[in-house]
Amino acid sequence: MRFIAAFMVLICHIGIVLVPSVQKPWLNWTEPYVYALGPTGVVFFFVLSGFVLTWSARPGDTSRLFWRRRLVKVYPNHLVTLGAAVVLMLVANNAVTTANTLPTLFLVQSWIPDQEVVLNYTSNAPTWSLACELLFYLAFPALLPLLRKIRVERLWLWLGGVALLICTLPFVALLLPDEPMMTNTDVPWWPLWFTYYFPVSRMLEFMLGMLTAQIVLSGRWIGLPLVPAMLLAGASFVVTAGFLPEMYSQASAIALFLALLIAAGATADVRGRPSFFRKRTMIFLGEISFALYMVHWLVILYGPMQMTKADGWSGHSTVSQALLDASLTVVITLLLAWLLYRLVERPAVRRWSRPATRGRSPAADVGAGPAAELHGER
Question: Which residues contact 80 (CB under 8 A, 6 or more apart)?
Fold first, then answer.
C-alpha cells in the first residue's frame, strides 16, 4: 500500500507537468483526478504514520529511543537528496538562497507561510511533508498515553470527531486572505497553506490514524473486509476529486475512508489472508517507497521531462513524446529509489537506529515487531 500511495504522488507530479504541456482537450477531464492523486497519497501516509506508530508501540520504549529511530529513518535520505538538489540547482543556474535551503535543511519550512520557503520548485519541494512528520514524531510520546486513557466504547466517537474536524478546515480557511495566488495556479495561497501545508492542521490526520489503530487493538473494529474498504476509498476519491471544491481534494474528505482502508489492510495482514499487497514484489516496492518519494521530484525537474527549462510547464508536446518522457521518469525514479534505499536508508537504520550494546549487533534490532511487516517503521 505504501508503494501505491508514493506512486500516486509520482503520477500526480508527472501529470501536473505533462497534461498542460500536451494541451489536448480530451485530456481535460483527467486533470482533477490526476492532480488529486498526490494529495490523496500524502493523506494516506499521514494517517498511516499514526496507525503504525500506535500499532507498534511497546512498553518500555523511551521518547529518546523513539525520536532516535525516527530521525535515523528520515534524515539520511533527506540530507542526501537535499545535497543532490543543491548541486543540480547550481548546475542548472537556478538560484540557491537561504529561503529555499536553510528551512528545508532543518525541516521547518512548512511552518513558514512563504511560497519560496515551502515550495521552491527548483529544489526538492515534496520535503514539506517531512516537516509535518517531525511534528507528529515529537508529539507522539505525549499523545499515546492520552489516547490509551480513552474508554474503548468512545473510540469511534473520537474518530468521528477528528474526521469532522478535518472536514471543517477548508471552512476555517475561508477566513484567511485570498491573495496572493499559489504559483502556476488560481488557488489562494493562505487558505491552501493552512489546510494543506500547516503541520498543526495535518496533525489531525496523524491522530485519526492513531485512533484507528487503537480501535483495532482494542477489538472494536467493525470487520470491514479489505476489498469493500478499497471500493469505499476509491469512491470517496472519485467524489472528492471530481465533485467537491478543490480545497477538499487537497486533504479533507477522504481521510476517514483511507483510515478504514488501512485498518482493513492491517486486519487482513494479521490474519494472513492472501492479498496482492503481500506479494514479494509489492513488499519490496513498499520498502523503497520513502526513497521513491524523496527522489521523484528531482527526476521530474532535471530528468527527461526537464521541467526547470523555460518551457517546462507549457511547452507543446505530442502524446507519444509525453508518454515516453513519463515512462523514462518512472524507470529512473525507481532505479534511484532502490539505490538510495540500499546505499543510504537501510545502512543508516541498521547502524544508528539503536545505541550499540556490547555483544549485540545494531542490525539485530532492525525489523523487530509486527510493524516491520506492516510498514517498515523502525
Answer: 340, 344
Looking at the chain, the whole-number percentage of residues with pLDDT higher than 70 is 88
- Contact between 123 and 100 under an 8 Å Cβ cutoff? The reply is yes
pLDDT digits (tens, 9 = 90+) for 20-66: 777 666 666 778 888 899 999 999 999 999 999 999 999 889 999 99
β-bridge mates for residue 357, sequence order: 360
What is the model's pTM? Answer: 0.91
- How many CB atoms sit inside 10 A of residue 58's CB? 8
CA distance 225 to 220: 14
Amino acid letter, 306: Q
Structure letter (DSSP) for residue 126:
G
The most distant pair of C-alpha atoms in the chain lies apart, rounded to whole Å, by: 66
For residue 135, which of 206, 196, 69 has the smallest C-alpha distance?
206
pLDDT value, residue 374: 40
Mean pLDDT, residues 191-220: 96
- The boundaries of the domain holding residue 366 are 2-374
Structural domain tally of the chain? 1
CA nearest to 353, candidates 318, 377, 322: 377
State the cell numbers at 160. Answer: 468521528
The Cα 64–Cα 296 span in angstroms is: 31
